[in-house]
Every structure is written in structure tokens, then in C-alpha cells.
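Issue 218. Parser rejects a valid record. Input:
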Amino acid sequence: YSHAEHDKAPLPAYSGTVQDVSNGANGTEAEGGLVQGEVQEVYVYPIKSCGAHECGSWPLTAKGLLYDRLWTLVDVEGSALTQKNEPGLARIRPTLLRG
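Output the parser choked on:
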């Protein structure tokens, strides 16, 4: 496996409102330009370019969701496999066990 790098740049502050298209509810702008809202579902992609692992709740680290895109499948030459070149990767559904 190969470790996938997380973006190191911080996310810019958001100013405005968020539209939740699933039920028509609007998020609200909080102090400092951050948006208040509610996360309805969480999905983690432990292996980059493979299927998702659905989570009811999940730990958040300084780099993002724990284990999200932590591993990458590579070919014999060490090049990362992607769905662009290998669409069947989407059928791989990793399962994460938390103890």
C-alpha cells in the first residue's frame, strides 16, 4: 500500500448560507464566517478510489476524517490505481472495525 497525502493547506473561511438540497433547510452563518449546520451522513474512503465505508459517527483529526484515503492501491511499478483507469475499484467496499 501507499499512504495518500492529505491537503496541507487550511480550508478558507466560508461566508454565506448553505442549502441542504435533501430537505430544503438552510444552514446559518456563525461568527467568524463559519457555517453552522448538521451532518446527516458520514462516509470514509479508507482506500483511495475504492468504495465508501458508511459511518454513523467518526473521529475527526487535524488532517480530516480518521483513515479517510489513508491507503492507495498501486500497480507493480508503484503507480497509484484510480477509477479513471480502473473503474472496477468502485466495487471494492472496505470495512473498518473500531475496537
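Fixed in the parser; the record now loads. The two ends are 23 Å apart (CA to CA).
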